[in-house]
Amino acid sequence: MNPFSGQPSNERPSATDWRERRVAPAWPVELLEPFCLRMSSQGMCVSRALMICDRRYALEQLSHAHNMADDTLRLMAVQLFRHFEASQSGIAGMH
Questions:
Q1: What is the DSSP letter of 24?
Q2: DSSP per-residue string spanning 30-55
């Protein structure tokens, strides 16, 4: 996808593109499921599989959710992002 035009690109992803896709942290199901459902209610289809296997995609979806005019969705995105930060830093999250 061409990031500037919003239109799909005819180019195939390079090996470098695929190597740059890192696995997202294991999202807590009790946060991920309601997040995906809430995004769907806002007209945004979120792939649970891509949320799990593509960190870039996951962060993009959290960004979209944070920018929507839905306070509950924004809170969900913040909670998931905090989980992401904690898993990246190696700091155990509070349960």
A1: P
A2: HHHHHHHHHHHHTT----HHHHHH-H
> Cα–Cα distance between 37 and 60 in angstroms, integer?
16
How far is 58 from 45, CA to CA, in rounded Å?
12
The whole-angstrom separation of Cα 55 and Cα 43 is 22
> In terms of residues, how long is the chain?
95
DSSP string covering 57-76, please?
HHHHHHHHHHTSS-HHHHHH
Query: Considering the chain, what is the average pLDDT of its residues?
Result: 79
Cα 63 → chain centroid = 8
pLDDT of 35 over the 80 cut: yes
Residue 16, SS3 per DSSP: helix
Closest to 31 (Cα-Cα) out of 72, 91, 63, 60:
72
**The residue type at 66:** H
Average pLDDT of the residues in 47-61: 91
